[in-house]
Backbone:
């Protein structure tokens, strides 16, 4: 029989299976947090490499584009003509807190290939090509830009529909866009985001505003790591508080 005058025990002896499960969950949570920290370091190194490619001297767009991963964010020069009658627009693009469009114009290279060029941002009031006729260069030009890839970065069930019949896209479906524009010998593994060219700057002085120099790669691994470590801390706190219940006196 328990002595009623004996001091109450501050902790209840942990159950073996509860301890094992809690320990396993703690290892998983800490492991996930540590893995996210490693992913953060890898992503930062990747961003540094990509930025160095974009900041380097421009090279001629190569004939061999495979593997495309070796060319992403490389600064290149392509020579040819814009196919303005096949112009498309990328919706919901923001510049200095103003919503607008990115102008996507197919480009016929001198070597016979075709690719999509993101010429940059325009406000909604200039979405109609007729409002910026001075920017629709007809002569052969050399375009300097950054190699990028298309596709939708999120889950398939969140992917919005494009409207190719209206020339309006929510995401870069390069194969579908090439088909809609009936491009000859299209390049669909990449597109070119304009950085700046003399021809563009002289044509209209402002629009479209090139945006190709921006290296945009999501790097939210620190937030994920903090989430996993926080859950690990919560688990430890719950385990301690649960077993800190005072034993009933008999």
Residues:
């Amino acid at each position: 029989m328990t002595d009623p005058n004996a001091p109450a025990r501050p902790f209840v002896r942990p159950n073996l299976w509860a301890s094992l499960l809690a320990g396993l969950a703690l290892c998983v949570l800490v492991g996930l947090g540590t893995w996210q920290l490693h992913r953060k370091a890898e992503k930062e190194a990747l961003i540094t490499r990509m930025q160095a490619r974009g900041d380097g001297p421009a090279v001629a767009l190569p004939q061999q584009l495979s593997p495309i991963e070796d060319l992403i964010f490389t600064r290149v020069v392509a020579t040819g003509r814009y196919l303005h009658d096949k112009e498309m627009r990328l919706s919901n693009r923001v510049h200095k807190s103003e919503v607008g469009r990115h102008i996507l114009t197919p480009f016929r290279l001198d070597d016979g290939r075709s690719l999509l060029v993101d010429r940059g941002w325009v406000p909604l009031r200039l979405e109609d090509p007729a409002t910026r006729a001075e920017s629709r260069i007809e002569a052969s030009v050399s375009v300097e830009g950054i190699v990028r890839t298309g596709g939708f970065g999120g889950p398939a069930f969140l992917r919005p529909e494009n409207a190719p019949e209206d020339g309006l896209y929510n995401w870069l479906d390069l194969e579908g866009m090439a088909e809609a524009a009936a491009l000859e010998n299209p390049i669909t593994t990449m597109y070119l985001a304009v950085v700046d060219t003399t021809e563009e700057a002289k044509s209209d002085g402002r629009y479209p505003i090139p945006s190709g120099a921006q290296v945009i790669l999501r790097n939210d691994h620190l937030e994920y790591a903090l989430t996993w470590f926080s859950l690990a801390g919560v688990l430890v706190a719950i385990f301690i508080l649960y077993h800190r219940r005072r034993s009933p006196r008999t």
Remarks:
- The two ends are 7 Å apart (CA to CA).
